[in-house]
Amino acid sequence: MVEQRAHPRIPVSTEVTVSHARFGTASARTVDVSEGGVLIEFLGCPFAVGDQVSVQVSSLEDAPLLQGTVVRVRSNEFALRFDPSDDEESAS
Predict the structure, then answer these.
(1) Which of 4, 27, 32, 82 is least crowded, fewest Cβ atoms below 10 Å from its Cβ?
(2) Checking phi first, is residue 50 left (phi over 0); if not, alpha (psi -120 to 50) or beta?
(3) Is 19 helix (H, G, I), strand (E, B) or coil?
(4) Structure confidence at residue 5 (pLDDT)
């Protein structure tokens, strides 16, 4: 199988807070992360492809709130593609 990822993934396991307009806020754990997104372990994942989700690292006091779009869902994990920030969009 040919690797189709635009950015290399790095294994990172850390607790994050996941927020969704309909499902509220919950704790989850990252599996890996890249410049373009993150894979998150979330038991009984309620999300669907296309859902907008926010993620924040729980252990960092001033961690940024990252916005993204769910691009893949499995029973206990989901992949989130980071949305471009306003700064990135204006630089294009």
Answers:
(1) 4
(2) left
(3) strand
(4) 60
State in words which class domain 10-84 has: mainly beta
3-state secondary structure of 90: helix
Asked whether the predicted pLDDT for residue 17 surpasses 70, the reply is yes
Query: Length of the chain, please?
Result: 92
The domain locations on the chain are 10-84
Residues sharing a CB contact under 8 Å with residue 48, sequence separation 6 or more, in sequence order: 70, 73
Tokens of 63: 């961690």
Beta-carbon contacts of 20 under 8 Å, excluding residues fewer than 6 positions away, are 46, 47, 51, 52, 53, 54
pLDDT value, residue 49: 97
Q: Please, are residues 47 and 39 in contact by the beta-carbon 8 Å criterion?
A: no
